[in-house]
Amino acid sequence: MSGGHYQYQYRSLELLADEIESDFLREFESVPDGDVIERFKILVEVKSLINDLRICAVRAKELEWFMSGDTGAESYLKRLGEILYGYQSK
């Protein structure tokens, strides 16, 4: 198994993103308070937060693999660039 340098803590970020997504994005009505405009703004913020958490999780995983010796400097930087470019183009 790859990684391990940080005890796979990147998984906590992935799980948090999944939980938030489950709570808020499945149903517009699940936002607990606010009028329609406020609830929409909250959902936009939550979607942004979920995206940020997923980016952080992938970046943390790549760093963990690098620090564990599973990838070298060149491949780490290349993969990190691909990840960041991929999220920015979405």
Written description of the protein model:
Helix content is 70%, strand content 0%. Helix 1 packs antiparallel against helix 2 and helix 2 runs antiparallel to helix 3. The protein contains three helices and no strands. The chain is elongated and about 50 Å long. The chain has one domain (10-88).
Summarize the structure.
With 90 residues, this protein is mostly helical.
Are there runs of 5+ residues with pLDDT below 50, and where?
A: none
Mean pLDDT: 86
Report Rg: 16 Å
What's the helical proportion of residues? Answer: over 70%
Provide a count of the helices: 3
> How would you classify the helix and strand content by structural class?
mainly alpha
Topology (elements, then pairings):
Elements: H1 10-24, H2 36-67, H3 73-88
Please give a handful of descriptors for the protein shown.
0% strand
